[in-house]
Design brief:
Two copies of one chain form a homodimer.
Chain A: H1 2-10, E1 50-55, H2 62-75, E2 80-84, H3 85-90, H4 100-119, E3 123-127, H5 133-140, E4 148-154, H6 157-163, H7 168-174, E5 195-198, H8 204-215
Parallel strand pairs in A: 1-3, 1-4, 2-3, 4-5
Helix pairs in contact in A: 2-8, 4-5
């Protein structure tokens, strides 16, 4: 019966039972790959992941937008989390001040944490003033092309200062908060952001819709 | 018709249409709570999350165990990720050396990152030698009781040194790697770990089963 013979011929040979995995003696366990490209092959069902990097003045609406986007993505079953300046400053970066060097280090750490979240299959929504182009470029360099979505959350300084949700502009104008971005420290706008959102013109929901459209995560 | 009247009486008044959410002018957006207790109310379907902290000598099997546990939990649909020393040293903590102060800072950062992952609903599996009790205690203090699972991955030094998967013991014995834990820097075993695993006695699968049983995440 040739058909059965043919079937037999293409059947895989019986496999020897796999030896139980044991801790390495002479054969070390495979190390996880260093950045970048971490263990992608082990995650065949890896959910869509991105770093969404919201940059802009204090009071521009970054944190509001970050939480609205997080909630929107979570409602659709995506894994998203917010990493914002206040939260990082309260924990991971609580040892840092506000000198240029410390701000750069704070941004570097945030970028690495975002990368860890992306590797874990999350959408990491980073909300940081991150005023300097060089530091945003260094953050971007940690990610595969297309995995780092730079979003310029833009309002005129006068609007941000009028909002002043934490009273920081008032303190900066009084001299109590030196080197405050927009007052006596520069903000370098992105030259080619993936998206620019004027939060003084658009309502939050519209900003979230534009973000979702540019993420390319959802149908 | 009294029944209908009663129904009418308990009906909620028609609600005015909700105003669209806009960026704050005078009313600032609610800030995310600082550590601890972050926005729990916003995550009614928050998946089970823990920090599993694997401590032990280099070569004890922490990273092997971490990846096996991660894979096991992911197969059951849980969100898990590994934070190990090599990976953190390649990225977030690449600015740190191996002085006592730098090691402590490395552990502090790992603990804060694990906390961020737990807040995001993940099981964060941390694999770090973390030789000193004080630093592990500081890490534990970042978590709610029961969310930090300290696991002593224990092998005799002779076994770890024979495994020597990265050749570090050899370098340490030759003097090329000063202050190496177990050789010329102490390891302080946990006094009351949630779990102790002898990886020279138990196969990986049995260690993973014992870990899973102690996590309390799965039926």
């Amino acid at each position: 019966m040739p058909i059965i013979e043919a079937r037999t011929a293409v059947s895989p040979p019986p496999r020897a039972p796999a030896a139980p995995l044991r801790f390495a003696m002479n054969h070390p366990p495979p190390l996880p790959a260093a950045l970048p490209g971490l263990r992608e092959a082990e995650r065949p069902q890896r959910p869509p992941a991105r770093a969404v990097w919201l940059t802009g003045l204090s009071g521009a609406g970054k944190t509001t937008l970050a939480h609205a986007l997080e909630a929107s993505l979570q409602r659709d079953g995506l894994r998203a989390c917010v990493l914002d300046g206040d939260r990082l400053r309260a924990g991971l970066s609580s040892d840092l001040g506000f000198s240029d060097a410390d701000r750069a280090e704070s941004i570097r750490r945030a970028a690495h944490v975002a990368r860890l979240f992306v590797d874990a299959g999350m959408v990491a929504i980073v909300a940081l003033i991150s005023p300097f182009r060089a530091e945003r470029a260094a953050a971007r360099a940690l990610f595969a092309p297309g995995d780092f979505i730079e979003v310029y959350v833009n309002v005129p300084l006068a609007v941000a200062e009028e909002r002043d949700p934490k009273g920081l502009y008032r303190r900066a104008r009084s001299g109590a908060l030196p080197r405050f971005t927009g007052i006596d420290s520069p903000y370098e706008p992105p030259e080619a952001p993936v998206l620019e959102l004027r939060t003084d013109v658009l309502p939050v929901a519209e900003c979230v819709e534009r973000l979702r459209a540019r993420l390319g995560l959802l149908p």
